[in-house]
Structure formats: structure tokens, C-alpha cells
Amino acid sequence: MYSGTDNYQTATVAGTASYAATPLTRFSAWTRVFGTDADDETQKKCVIRKLSGRWTFASNEPDNRQFSMFVVSLKDEASGLLNSDGTLAALAQGTHYSDPLGTGAGALLNLKLFNVHYHKSWTAGVTPEVKAAVNPAGAVQNIGMTPGATHRFGKFNIRLPRGGIRVLNPTGDWKAGLFPKDPSKNYYVLTFWSGDSSVDLETGNMLINWLAGVDAST
Question: What Å distances lie between residue 81 and 55, 65, 145, 181, CA to CA?
């Protein structure tokens, strides 16, 4: 069994899109856990049989912000998005995804390029209470702001292709191969969010941890 992790701020950098892409199958960055033997990494091939994870979002940002998270794999038509190190090339609004207003929760993926295996949307921040009439004259009372959900968490368990993801590195051990060379066997977490700045020291933080079950005896 192997583990991977990613941790980043959900802050917007000027001139860039508000999203992050986490490669789940970039096994060169995985760490052995639960007693996995180092000898498993001497084999030229292996099969990834399980991929599951958990994510945690926390924020001290009082303004409402919206988020969408997807776990995706690439279709053959998206092979050009696979970088030489297993990371994902930059995604373009209107080509790879659609979120022209930068809403985050409204992000839609181009399904000609991605298979979607998991999706979650949420809002974080504070929510204004409804103003209520308090007398016949129609006067209203502003009853303030109620803290919203500034912490979210979830988990995913990805159904892999029948037989798992087969990895082969003819020139060395399988882990030195960095990532699956077949684009369709590469999985990513894509997180989109509405605009935010970290200048005011109020922003969100995303932590993603995942496990991969690997059989190196085949």
C-alpha cells in the first residue's frame, strides 16, 4: 500500500485561473505505508488495484466562496494535457472547462476530454440572515450574520478499470517510471473556486490524502 498527499491554499493569483490539479497516479511521489516491503519496488511491473482518498477544507475567509471538486481520468483526446512528469498541463477556460463568471461551484468540465469519477460542490463563508418585519409599518430588523460552514471534508473511492492499472517500466523498476504512460490511466483531483486574495490573510486551505493498493507480484 502506498500513500500520497497534496496541500495548497485556495487563493487566486493575479492572471491565473482559480483551480488546482493534483495528480493521484504520479507514483514517483508515493510513500510506502502499512508495512509495504521495499522489495516491491524492484519489479519492472505492477498493477494498481485500488485508489481511494480523503480531503479536508478549512478556511478563515468570512466572505461566501464557492467550490467544485472533481476526480477525473484523461480520455485519449486529452493526451496533450499530460506533462512529461505526470502533472497536468494548464487548463483553459472555454476549452477544457467552462466557468466564465469564476463561480467555482458552477464549473463544468469538457466531457470530451475527461472521465468524471467523483464530484462535490460546496459554499464556505458566512450567510446573511433573512431580514424580518417587526411591526405593521414594515420596519425591518437586520439580525446579522451567521457563520457558515468554514470546514468541509469528504472521501472518494475510485472504481478502476477491470484488472486495475497495469504499469510497466522496461528500463528499471516500476516506480522509477514516474507515472502511467497511457494517458487514460492517469487520475487527477481538480478543484475550482471563486476568486479570493490571500493579501488579507483570509483564505482557504485544501488537504488531500489518498491511498493506492499496488500488486507488484504479477
Answer: 24, 28, 43, 12
